[in-house]
Amino acid sequence: MKNHHPNRPPRLSNVFRRFDPPLYFITFCTFDRKPLLATDLFHTYFVTHMKRKSDEDIVCGEFVIMPDHIHLFLRVDPYRYTLGKTVGFIKQALSQPLRQQGITPPHWQPGFFDHILRNADSYSNKWNYVRNNPLRAGLVEHSSDWKYQGTITPIQY
User: Fold this and answer.
1) Which of 14, 17, 78, 125 shows the greatest Cβ crowding within 10 Å of its Cβ?
2) Total domains present in the chain
3) What is the layout of strands, in order, in the sheet containing 149-151?
């Protein structure tokens, strides 16, 4: 498989090209897990950026921004983009509000975690996990109290 890095598992995007674009569960982290992200400025920038990207066939559904990582559900048109480059461009764009706050790079850990959601149950299970992440981390008493979460574009499986 070309473009396969020996230390990373191969991407499955080519397998799904004949179907609807796959739905991915994505997680990426800040460099050294620094707590940089759970701010109003970053949240607003993230939402604005991902709304713009939906016009380019990069569709973000639900998301949760934690202090040191982001979980999101993403559909990417596999005829236009690869998942790796898409996440790279998202990370690059999301560095802008960090630079505006005087935070010098690097901002992001290399790579990201991705999981293809194959059915509605898998989607529901992952969303329940993600939605409760701030609760498990002790940041809120109820998962609905975490203000750095939401839905950019409703995605149905």
Assistant:
1) 78
2) 1
3) 113-117, 23-29, 69-76, 58-65, 149-151
